[in-house]
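Notes from hallway chat w/ T.B., transcribed later so I don't forget. T.B. wanted the structure written out for a chain they're using in a teaching module, and asked if we could keep both sequence and structure tokens in one place. Agreed to drop them here.
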Amino acid sequence: MSYKTLFLQNTGKIIEMGDPKKPIGKVFGVPFDLTSSYRAGSKFAPQAIRSAFNNIEIFSKVFNIDLEEVYIEDLGDVTISHDARTTADRVFSLWKEFLEEKVPTCMLGGEHSISYGSISALPEDVGVVIFDAHLDLRDELDGSNFTHATYFRRLLDKMDHNRFLHLGSRAACKQEWAFAKSKGLNVLEADRFPQDACKAYFFNEHKKLYFSIDMDVFDPAYAPGVGNPEPAGISPKDFLVFLKKLRQSDLVGFDIVEVCPPYDNGNTSVLAAKLMMELFCSTLV
């Protein structure tokens, strides 16, 4: 039996224009936030982002692509477990299926622990770009070694650190910074974005890419509704400059996590929807 049959609940379509037999992208939600360490509520984000997407213009001036002329399939939300690892395992199984279909897929969180499942499923030739204010390299948090603040550490327990580029960081404990340095991780802090990121040698080595976007990478002025806001972040304009310069890359999938609607004025969900739109358009260039 398909894992999609087991774990996905239909929650409506994002867009139904174009030929439904040939979707240019797939979307699903993971309404999970049980390891949130500050402001919970990201479990409400998939629906909030869908609503925002349905109420913004979806023609990309950046890429000259009109998503109203194509079809994006919304698969609904994963039936989550009350255990973070079990939920991540379900995400892993889903991504294995999606990768076989070779259609760019977007996962809407939820908090960042769910990305452990999607990233673990990626083939070895796919480079992973993490956009995040935080390093998420703690070995444990509040007695657990598997949370949204430790998921990247757990990935590095089993994956080559050279497959990762971390962009936008500006908040971590002393031990996390030391660990990143000792491992030789590719980390570019927020004040080096986008100029140094656009020139990173990482993109010469990895033409196939996966983006994991924690919305707290953006300054709270642009994205106030996140679980762990952190000042001095990047701007949406700089993100789009960066994205436009990566046209030669193949984006196999991406996730957008940590939107927290209970603390949002609506701007964060709209920004997340805008990012989803532009990222799908980038795959069509």
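Follow-up for T.B.: The chain has one domain: 3-282. Might be a good example for the class.
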